[in-house]
Structure formats: structure tokens, C-alpha cells
Write a structure and sequence with these properties.
The chain is an alpha+beta fold. The chain folds into 2 domains: 71 residues, Translation initiation factor 3 (IF-3), N-terminal domain (Ubiquitin-like (UB roll)), CATH 3.10.20; 83 residues, Translation Initiation Factor IF3. Helix content is 36%, strand content 30%. It is built from 4 helices and 9 strands; from the N terminus they run ββαββαβαβαβββ. The strands form 2 sheets. Strands 5, 6, 7, 8 and 9 form a 5-stranded mixed beta sheet that branches. Strands 2-1-4-3 form a 4-stranded mixed beta sheet, with helices on one face. Strand 3 and strand 4 form a beta hairpin. It is rod-shaped. It starts with 14 loop residues before the first strand and ends with a strand.
């Protein structure tokens, strides 16, 4: 995190408009008087806005303010995470195993996670890529109620990949 706010001695202006710790307007005063007033209260003088002729400064606990900002950023970052779950299978898969894998996909989608379905293709087998596409189509039919296919299935090395996003 980078803050470009000036604190205490970093404030270059000769006079500043000061807002007290509790939000009251203290008015315009010389910068050194404002800094000493903040230090006497045990706080810092922080430049809030430098767009005006006299910068607007506030008396606050700078360390606590920075801590709260970082805490809020971490909280927002964790909320925005979208989890990508991957289900891998092969073209030669029993029906019961396939239904189990599809149920897992549906669970992930209902929780709000993206699901990547990867089908391993064996190029030595004849028409294995065709089987992979057919298998992916049959999975897509089942998953249409819970999620939508977000990309066209593409061959990525030995795997045919498709990503489904929850349809909320």
C-alpha cells in the first residue's frame, strides 16, 4: 500500500486549515503551530487535501489510520476472491463415476465457485478427442441449470478444458 499523504514535518505549506481529532473546525493557522497542537494531544497532523491554496490537515492517529486501511484492503480482497475448482476425468469413465464427478461440479457451482472440467485425451486411441467432446457436451447438458459455459472448450496439451461459471 502506498500513501502519498504528508504527515507532520513533511507538510511544506506555511499555513494550513486544521480539522481537530473529533472533527471540529480549528481554522487556519501556521503549520508549526498545528503540528505542535497535534503532538500535544498525542496525535499526528495529516494532510487530507492539498488542492486548495492552504492545504486541509486533520489531527489523527496516523498509525491507527494506516492499520485500518490495510485491514479494510485485506477484507475487500478476501471477499473478491473467486475460487476455481478443477474436476479431472478421462474419456473412458464409468457412468457412476461420471455422475459423481458431475455432482461435485454442481456442488461447487451452487457455492458460487467457478469449475474447470478437464478431460484427459489419449491421442494413441482412435477418435479419443471426439469422445472427449461428446463427454463434455453431455456434462454441459446437465450443468445448464446451475452454470454457464464461459469459454469454448479448447485442447490444452493432453486435456480438453472447459470453464463453467455459476448462473446466479
Amino acid at each position: 500500500m502506498h500513501n502519498t499523504k504528508n504527515v507532520n514535518k513533511q507538510i511544506k505549506a506555511d499555513t494550513v486549515v486544521v480539522i481537530g481529532f473529533d472533527g471540529e473546525q480549528l481554522g487556519q493557522m501556521p503549520t508549526n503551530v498545528a503540528i505542535s497542537k497535534a503532538e500535544n494531544q498525542g496525535y499526528d497532523l495529516v494532510e487530507v487535501s492539498d488542492n486548495t491554496k492552504e492545504p486541509i490537515c486533520k489531527i489523527m492517529d496516523w498509525g491507527k489510520y494506516q492499520f485500518e486501511q490495510r485491514k479494510q484492503e485485506r477484507k475487500n480482497k478476501s471477499k473478491n476472491k473467486v475460487h476455481l475448482k478443477e474436476i479431472r476425468l478421462k474419456t473412458r469413465i464409468a457412468n457412476h463415476d461420471l455422475t459423481t464427478k458431475v455432482k461435485r461440479c454442481l456442488e461447487f457451482l451452487s457455492k458460487g465457485d467457478k469449475v474447470k472440467v478437464s478431460i484427459q485425451v489419449n491421442f494413441r486411441r482412435k477418435d479419443d478427442e471426439t469422445y472427449a467432446h461428446e463427454l463434455l457436451n453431455s456434462i454441459s447438458v446437465v450443468m445448464t441449470d446451475f452454470g454457464t459455459l464461459s469459454n469454448t472448450p479448447k485442447l490444452n496439451g493432453r486435456y480438453l478444458d472447459a470453464i463453467y461459471t455459476p448462473s446466479n
